[in-house]
Amino acid sequence: MHPWTGLVSPSVEPARTAAEDLLVDSAIGRLEKLRRVFELEEWIRGAAEVPLLAASCARWRTERAQLLGELHLDAFAADAAPG
């Protein structure tokens, strides 16, 4: 057994408040949306030269624009990918 085992009880650790939980959840949500924007951007660039993917590419552009709007980055929506 380690000498420090059991020295700090769980009741001594500071409790996270609901506001802190909300802040963390919000940050995680924003990061997930941003990750999705980057993923869509990669797909759009890769599909630009493939006529078979035109319909999918249009949906990806729409989704990317919506996510950028939700992230308040919609100024980048027009410039984010070749069109």
> What's the number of extended β-strand segments?
0
Distance between the termini: 63 Å
- Secondary structure tally, helices: 2
State the assembly state of the protein chains: single chain
Q: How confident overall, as mean pLDDT?
A: 83
Helix content, binned percent? 55-70%
Global structural class: mainly alpha
How large a portion of the residues is in β-strands, by DSSP E? Answer: under 5%
Low-confidence stretches: none
Radius of gyration: 21 Å
Main sheet makeup: none
Q: Secondary-structure element order, as H and E?
A: HH
Descriptive report:
- By secondary structure, the protein is an all-alpha fold.
- The chain is 57% helix and 0% strand.
- It is built from two helices and no strands.
- Helix 1 runs antiparallel to helix 2 (54-70).
- The termini are far apart.
- The mean pLDDT is 83.
Write the layout of secondary structure elements.
Layout: H1 18-47, H2 54-70
Helix pairs in contact: 1-2
Please summarize what this structure is.
The protein is mainly alpha-helical and 83 residues long.
Task: Supply database-style keywords.
single chain; 83 residues; elongated; mainly alpha
